[in-house]
């Protein structure tokens, strides 16, 4: 089995892509001080994460080929990987404004940097544009170029409808617990997270190798979407039970009135008195109200409930992976590698 890529190896590709992006902006005579702003936004927002999504592209390509990649193949696959990181950067810069978040990756959110503020909205758009600049530069001649372009467009739209549902299910001014349900939850997380975080990197790897036929894409989707749902449930769990120093962000789901996995689980098991505690404290922008909800989550033993869920979902995913037919070019290892990266994650 070929070696998995390292963060260091993956990050070593970025300067070359950044140079392409800056050269592209320079063609439009973007003044030097504005170019420096774009450079800063790229470096702060696209670099510095775990790069799980991005690194999954070269890893998947290597597993699909069953060997280590040549330098040229690695560069191509890592370039597609960096596009998923640019898409993620575009989403996170925007999401942090919408969620009124404080920190990201252990530093202030981009919109909270000195002198940035709402310019962050335009920076987010430019992070998205960077994807298509790189695609054109490096994949214009690839037989699957239009599939790659359409894949990014479709996954972006899927994420946007998920984000829309996330926001509309969490109105700031009126808390109504009847609004939440596990079926609404599933819609939100499948669209806002699973497609771009799980399906996208593997679909990119399949297209790079011209294995992106409808049957392979469908099989990949049928496993990666439930896996992505599990990943967002972890994110919701960590929002409350994770350590901010460790996860690099401060949880906001309770104060933001989010239709999170934890509140949905709580609603299934609360007594009428406990439900009253939720009614009176959930979704309020106040530390004391938030603390009351956190205490209730502990009383309801939601941490243990999450750990039980995790074991059962991982058992199911492993069964589904074991049943994959590899004759069409798909490889179980692609999915096993992805699952291994997230199982029992604590950040
Ligand atoms: C994660 O939700 C979802 C996204 C980052 C997608 C945002 C989509 C847009 C179209 C902007 P989250 O708010 O739980 O993430 P986090 O906990 O990292 O803030
Ligand atoms: Mg958020
Ligand atoms: Mg959000
Ligand atoms: Mg979250």
TrEMBL record:
Pfam families: polyprenyl_synt. Gene3D superfamilies: Farnesyl Diphosphate Synthase. It comes from the Eukaryota. InterPro entries: FPS1-like, Isoprenoid_synthase_dom_sf, Polyprenyl_synt, Polyprenyl_synt_CS. Keywords: Magnesium, Metal-binding, Transferase. SUPFAM superfamilies: Terpenoid synthases. Its cofactor is Mg(2+). PROSITE patterns: POLYPRENYL_SYNTHASE_1, POLYPRENYL_SYNTHASE_2. Belongs to the FPP/GGPP synthase family. This is Farnesyl diphosphate synthase. It comes from Sporothrix eucalyptigena.
């Amino acid at each position: 089995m070929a070696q998995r890529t390292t963060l260091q190896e993956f990050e070593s590709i970025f300067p070359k892509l950044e140079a392409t992006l800056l050269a592209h902006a320079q063609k439009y005579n973007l003044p030097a001080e504005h170019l420096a702003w774009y450079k800063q936004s790229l470096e702060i927002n696209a670099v510095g994460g775990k790069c799980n999504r991005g690194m999954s592209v070269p890893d998947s390509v290597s597993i699909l080929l069953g060997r280590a990649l040549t330098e040229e193949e690695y560069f191509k696959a890592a370039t597609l990987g960096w596009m998923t990181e640019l898409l993620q950067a575009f989403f996170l810069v925007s999401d942090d404004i919408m969620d009124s978040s404080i920190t990201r990756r252990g530093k202030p959110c981009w919109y909270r940097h000195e002198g940035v503020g709402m310019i962050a909205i335009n920076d987010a758009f430019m992070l998205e544009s960077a994807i298509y600049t790189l695609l054109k530069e490096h994949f214009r001649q690839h037989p699957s170029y239009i599939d790659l372009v359409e894949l990014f467009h479709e996954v972006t739209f899927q994420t946007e409808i998920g984000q829309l549902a996330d926001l509309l299910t969490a109105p700031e001014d009126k808390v109504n617990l009847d609004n939440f349900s596990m079926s609404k939850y599933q819609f939100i997380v499948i669209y806002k997270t699973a497609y771009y975080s799980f399906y996208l990197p593997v679909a990119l790897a399949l297209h790079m190798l011209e294995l992106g036929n409808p049957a392979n894409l469908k099989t990949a989707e049928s496993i990666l979407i439930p896996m992505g749902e599990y990943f967002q449930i972890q994110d919701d769990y960590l929002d409350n039970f994770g350590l901010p120093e460790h996860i690099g962000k401060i949880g906001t789901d309770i104060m933001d009135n989010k239709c999170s996995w934890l509140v949905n689980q709580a609603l299934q098991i609360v007594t009428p008195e406990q439900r009253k505690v939720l009614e009176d404290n959930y979704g309020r922008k106040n530390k004391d109200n938030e603390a009351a909800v956190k205490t209730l989550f502990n009383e309801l033993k939601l941490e243990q409930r999450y750990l039980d869920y995790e074991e059962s979902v991982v058992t199911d995913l492993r069964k589904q992976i074991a049943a994959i037919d590899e004759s069409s070019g798909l490889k179980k290892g692609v999915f096993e590698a992805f699952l291994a990266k997230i199982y029992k994650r604590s950040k």
